[in-house]
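Protocol step 4 of 6: structure prediction from sequence.
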Amino acid sequence: MTDLRVLPPGTPAALAIRNIRIAWIIALVFVLVTTLWPRLSIGSGESPIDKLIHAAAFGVLAALFVYTRWLRSLWWSLLFMIAVAALDEVLQMIPQLGRSADLDDWGADVVGIAIALAFCMAARPVGAGASRLVGQRRSIAADLLFVQPTAWLHLATVAALGFAAGAPLGVLLDSWFIRKGPQPWQYGFIGGMLGMAVGVHALWEAGVRARVRRAISEHPCLACGASSPLTAPAVADVGTEFSNTPASATNHCTRCGTPRRATDWAPIAPLQASAELGACLLPILLSTVALVVLSVTFITIVTTLRLRSDFVLRIDTWYQMLPADARILGDIATVALIGACGLAACRRRIAARVDQCGASCLGCGFDLRATTPTAIAGTCHECGGGFVRIATATPSTLPERNA
């Protein structure tokens, strides 16, 4: 993860981090103003959504905070955001606000923070060769997008439209299949948040991919995003892999001094859709099985022991007394945390496939081991797709960044 202190001012990466920090501060002020608003009440007694709003708000805050890069460790970020949530509850004890601190609200904040950081952890850079290079390209492409105010405007617009489209679907789902009689606040909010997440992710993914394609011709620095000329690729000896050492660098970035390599923006054929799906099938299956087994086990234990064990009976009674939105949040957290584990496994398996791009073409599967590239990057003779050969024994000298 790049530290802003080592980035020259005015570079795209530094400007992107600055914009993300501004966005986090604005979001924090908005959340604090909302939670401290005197006598604010949302939802109804039969369909409360207070806990869901707390989890969503602090989940978004936690995700943004990770990308501010104020703290390098996700665990320190977790502790910091938990402290911010606790401070928010303490401030609600001010008598003039007509509010009160609630341990359940703080618990909902912590659940939202944990879910957000679990997905941030699952999205960390993986792989050691071509997959790490692809991740660095996507990271700098995202920075180049976050520099543009229009990108933030587009994301906000799509988030609003996604919420507006998803909320009615959530109400209909609850009315038709779940409770037979609808819970418009709870499931409308859940549907809206899912619609928002899907819309924002789709737009962000499309933007990053478009920016990566554009960057292939511009060759920005993978550390700071600054555009600087790249000399012709150095020719490697036959059968010799490209070594990730400063000696093999073609030149250095004129802004941050990071070594520029001939493989930085060399074309790499995209992984076949069937291969990507095959890599994800096992983690998806195991995640689904884990969720089913956990649910069945919990229900079986409670049903069997609640009349035989006072401890289980007290736990079950306490759970049934929780607000409806708190119980729903518990279900969401279970699904989300298992899903984050599955996502991490999928990314590791895909990275392992991509790291083999020097041995077999990712686009058509053609065996490249007998193909000698004229430089450190080559072209598949079967489909024309590009590939790179990067030694994985030596760590990359580029600063590690979130993909």
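Step 5 (inspection) to follow. The chain has four domains: 1-124, 132-218, 229-269+357-403, 274-345.
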